[in-house]
Write a structure and sequence with these properties.
Helix content of chain A: over 70%
Radius of gyration of chain A: 22 Å
Strand content of chain B: under 5%
Number of strands of chain B: 0
Structural class of chain B: mainly alpha
Radius of gyration of chain B: 24 Å
Number of strands of chain A: 0
Helix content of chain B: over 70%
Low-confidence stretches of chain B: none
Oligomer: heterodimer
Mean pLDDT of chain B: 84
CATH superfamily of chain A: MetI-like
Largest sheet of chain B: none
Strand content of chain A: under 5%
CATH topology of chain A: MetI-like fold
Shape of chain A: elongated
Mean pLDDT of chain A: 86
Largest interface: A-B, 42 and 51 residues
Structural class of chain A: mainly alpha
Largest sheet of chain A: none
Number of helices of chain A: 12
């Protein structure tokens, strides 16, 4: 990011505040063992279904596990899934999009029709389909969410690559004998980078929503793993017995998703000042 | 116009073919013997062998796919392993719940989203605008299943106004519909505001204002009519998404709809049922999107004539 863009981003108070919230959550994930008084799987059946107290700031769940400790460790799982699935999604998606744009003709058609079919399915349905094939668990949840992100990135990369490839300086570059690889790496990729970075940030929010939704249904990350969605899989019982234990994970998800959206919007405004801002 | 509709329909059939192929391959990509998967764990070797012949697993994959497609087109989605009933019958049995919730959810989301979006655009850059947009983004960021749990906590457990689970009376529909509408309402609100601001900044709106027409007349008669076009397409897309979103909401409120059917089928490894529900929901999603696209073309001649909307 250029210093100009950085300065523009800093001036955006909402985006800066959201960035701080996200930094807080990532710090929480990094320091999880130091921030949690109990182990995330530590059961204490004698003190289950407790409300908030000094010993358990957010109460305990049906097995007497400390909600705060589980929430803190859950940030690790949820953020790891979101970040790794988006990284895989953007790498695969951008590669497919660039190949489609660069080679054109039938390669383009085949790749983009496949992307259309994937986009033709609602995200949660695609996620369930992949989990049906691969089985559940953390890694498979990452794969499911990554596959869901691929078409979005492929379209974006193809779009920005096509705009650049039509410009005169690419023709000039070709005329001077630059190789395909050089044109891709030197001209096409750098131009596609900005929209990809912005979309990745926005996509992180969707990734958390889909992953936690799958886990809530019992199809993604499995209990006792304290993923935020999985923490809510016994939601109805929790709501009846210890509402705090049901409120906390959902609030964490909402806050993180909201912050990713606001930071993404802020990045877009900062990186592309030409865009008209309402 | 006719050519536009024909092209959309052709694309729809292509997408339907693609999804059916995807769903068909799903069962074949699972490690293990599809005949065993399709006849359940308790099946005898003879039953499995019969299933294998029935499914034509000894024949080439392409021929198997056409058999599957032919069955699906004739309404034969196979038989549920767990329940022993035809998959389609079970889906149609449960469809009314899902369809009602999705339709009411879309209606509510559209109504609230459009009204709040228009108001935000009219009060552009004033505190009300910021508040509405913040609420809309918050609604779009809240996981639906958690929103459902919270509504249940407040309205059925604390206040005791509404029933919490099941779907026995019309009061049972209130919380699921609210839950489902939340996310889409937020998205539609933001889209409406953006579309309105786009239109309100154009010359013909300025001209209308200069003629001395009242602000509300300008907003409703001139701006809203044109801002509606992009909003229609989002509403159509949302309906499809809400149909799939019932998977989560039905789980929260223990509603025996199609979404719950799919999740149960996955948990029970009831593969014919998984195949059937997936194909059904994805098919409806594709058809609804096509209908939206066609309506979009009816509303905006620029689209059906091949130009891009500005």
């Amino acid at each position: 990011m250029s210093t100009h863009a950085l300065r523009r981003f800093r001036r955006n108070k909402v985006a800066m505040a959201s960035a701080c919230v996200l930094a807080g959550f990532f710090l929480m994930a990094g320091l999880a063992p130091y921030l949690s008084p109990y182990g995330p799987l530590e059961q204490d059946l004698a003190s289950n279904y407790q409300g908030p107290s000094q010993a358990h700031p957010l109460g305990t769940d049906e097995l007497g596990r400390d909600t705060w400790s589980r929430l803190v460790h859950g940030s690790r799982v949820s953020l790891t899934i979101a970040v790794s699935s988006v990284i895989v999604g953007v790498l695969v998606g951008a590669a497919l999009g660039l190949i489609a744009a660069f080679y054109g003709s039938w390669v383009d058609s085949v790749i983009m029709r496949l992307m259309d079919i994937m986009l033709a399915l609602p995200g949660i349905l695609l996620g369930i389909a992949i989990v049906v094939v691969l089985g559940n668990g953390v890694i498979n949840t990452i794969v499911a969410v990554a596959v869901f992100s691929v078409p979005t990135f492929a379209r974006l990369a193809r779009g920005s690559a096509l705009t650049v490839l039509g410009l005169d300086y690419i023709a000039a570059s070709r005329a001077t004998g630059a190789s395909s690889l050089r044109i891709l790496a030197g001209h096409v990729v750098p131009n596609a980078l900005t929209p990809l970075i912005v979309q990745s940030t926005l996509q992180l929010g969707s990734a958390i929503l889909i992953a936690s939704g799958l886990s809530f249904l019992g199809l993604g990350v499995q209990p006792p793993n304290p993923e935020w969605g999985a923490m809510l899989s016994k939601g109805r019982e929790l709501v009846r017995s210890t509402p705090v234990a049901a409120i906390a994970p959902g609030m964490a998800i909402t806050l993180v998703v909201l912050s990713f959206s606001l930071v993404g919007d802020g990045l877009r405004d900062a990186l592309d000042p030409k865009l008209e801002r309402h | 116009m006719l050519r536009y509709v024909a092209r959309r329909l052709a694309e729809m059939f292509l997408a339907l073919l693609g999804t059916s192929l995807l769903v068909f391959l799903l069962i074949h990509m699972i490690p293990g013997d599809p005949a065993l998967l399709m006849s359940g764990l308790e099946a005898s070797p003879e039953q499995i062998e019969q299933k294998r012949r029935e499914l034509g697993l000894d024949r080439p994959l392409a021929i198997q796919y056409f058999g599957f497609l032919k069955g699906a087109l004739q309404g034969d989605f196979g038989t549920s392993i767990r329940m022993g009933v035809p998959v389609l019958d079970e889906i149609l049995d449960r469809l009314p719940y899902t369809l009602t919730i999705a339709a009411l959810g879309t209606l509510l989301a559209t109504l609230v989203g459009m009204v709040s979006g228009v108001l935000a655009s009219v009060y552009h850059n004033r505190p009300g605008d910021g508040l509405v947009m913040m609420l809309a983004l918050l609604a779009a960021s809240t996981p639906s299943y958690w929103l459902g749990l919270m509504l249940m906590l407040v309205f059925s457990l604390w206040l005791g106004w509404l029933p919490s689970i099941g779907i026995r009376s019309s009061a049972h529909y209130v919380l699921p519909v609210l839950t489902l509408a939340g996310q889409s309402g937020g998205i539609i609100s933001r889209m409406t505001r953006a579309a309105m601001l786009d239109v309100l900044g154009q010359d013909y709106v300025r001209a209308a204002r200069a003629r001395g027409e009242t602000e509300w007349f300008v907003v409703v008669r001139h701006a809203l009519k044109n801002a509606l076009i992009p909003v229609i397409s989002i509403v159509g897309l949302r309906f499809g998404n809400l149909l799939a979103g019932t998977v989560l909401v039905e789980s929260v409120f223990a509603i025996p709809g199609v979404g719950r059917l799919l999740v149960d089928a996955v948990n029970w490894r009831d593969y014919p049922m998984i195949q059937g529900t997936m194909l059904f929901v994805a098919g409806v999603f594709v058809v609804v999107n096509t209908v939206t696209d066609i309506l979009y073309g009816v509303a905006d001649p620029r689209i059906r004539l091949g130009g891009a909307p500005r």
